[in-house]
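Here comes just one.
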Amino acid sequence: MSIENKLYWEDFVPGSRESMGLVTVDLNEVLEFASRYDPQPFHISEEQAKHSIYGRIIASGWHTCAMVMRLMCDSYLLNSTSLGSPGIEGVKWPHPVYPGDVLTAYRTVIETRASGSKPDRGIVKTFWEVENQNGELVMSMTGVNFFLRREAGQ
């Protein structure tokens, strides 16, 4: 895709909320991710998860973050002038994510501002929310990204 068709800093409007798509949580992926990165019993053992507060296997919160990152990439980041992010703040997992859940992710632009030190870029602060098929909030986080400006220094 040519750079003319990509999203620039100016294309992010404070207050706008958009769906980033959905993903179905796969049991094998839950087990694979957790076995490799977060091997707590309620993520990797059906038997031990039965006796946990969750009653069955749940996805690692970090796996949920990774699934949402993929939705972010597919829905807008790969079609943008993104220069990356200095970080995320306030990641929350208020409700467990179970294999078979269908997660829908949304992004809301909180604010935008031009960089004070680098006139070719701007900063976008975003709030991301993820709901399961029952409309329950399963994850939220806030973060910033840097994007090139279409009209640097204007």
Notes: The mean pLDDT is 95. Residues 61-75 form the longest helix (15 residues).
